[in-house]
């Protein structure tokens, strides 16, 4: 079975991606490798951050790996928080603080359209491959649900009546930005 390092310390991402990959691929986490440091993320694009993280881990461990970066783009906020989604409320902020800031910024806005985007960079035998996924939806006025992570409690995908945080993981993975990007990654990995 082929092994890939997943370049994240976010246990929720690992859980989502592991479920999507199934038993076909073995994921090695940074925790299993004893790597607890934050990986640099200084690009102003999702693709740039995904590449930077994957390259950092590939250089450090010399093994095939992949990394993702995800952003929530809100139309009424001119695409914010976008690439800064994880630190929207400031460095070392919590998911809850990010949601608080987003809901505050959205006060009084009637255009609630938003989209989640994910870019995955895979480095395999020294070559880079990119996989993307996008899910369009809208921002709620308050939190709904306890599942998921990040902005899941305030994002309702188009065509659904519940937030990502109200969906079970299997259902979310079928339609989510990360789920779609991982689906494209899996298709590539299983061609081998």
The CATH topology name reads Maf protein
Total count of helical runs of at least 4 residues: 5
Globally, the shape reads globular
User: What is the tally of beta strands?
Assistant: 7
How helix-rich are the residues, as a percent range? 25-40%
Note the run of SSEs as H and E: EHEHEEHEEEHH
Q: Regions with pLDDT < 50 over 5+ consecutive residues?
A: none
Structural class: alpha/beta
CATH hierarchy class name: Alpha Beta
Distance between the termini: 11 Å
Q: Quick one: biggest sheet?
A: 7 strands, mixed
Strand proportion: 25-35%
Mean pLDDT: 93
CATH architectural name: Alpha-Beta Complex
Task: Give an account of the 3D structure.
The chain has 192 residues and is an alpha/beta fold. The chain has a single domain, classed as Maf protein, CATH 3.90.950.10. The protein contains 5 helices and 7 strands. Strands 1, 2, 3, 4, 5, 6 and 7 form a 7-stranded mixed sheet that branches.
């Amino acid at each position: 079975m082929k092994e890939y390092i997943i370049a994240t310390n976010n246990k929720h991402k690992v859980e989502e991606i592991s479920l999507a990959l199934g038993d076909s691929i073995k994921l090695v986490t940074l925790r299993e490798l004893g790597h607890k440091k934050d990986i640099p993320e200084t690009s102003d694009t999702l693709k740039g951050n995904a590449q930077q993280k994957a390259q950092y881990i590939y250089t450090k461990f010399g093994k095939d790996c992949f990394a993702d970066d995800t952003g929530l783009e809100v139309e009424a906020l001119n695409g914010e928080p976008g690439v800064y989604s994880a630190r929207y409320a400031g460095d070392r902020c919590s998911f809850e603080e990010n949601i608080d800031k987003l809901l505050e910024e959205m006060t009084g806005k009637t255009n609630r359209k938003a989209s989640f985007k994910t870019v995955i960079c895979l480095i395999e035998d020294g070559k880079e491959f990119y996989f993307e996924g996008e899910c369009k939806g809208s921002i709620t006025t308050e939190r709904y649900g306890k599942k998921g992570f990040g902005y899941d409690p305030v994002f309702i995908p188009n065509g659904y009546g519940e937030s990502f945080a109200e969906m079970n993981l299997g259902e979310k993975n079928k339609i989510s930005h990360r789920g779609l990007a991982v689906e494209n990654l899996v298709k590539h990995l299983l061609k081998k």
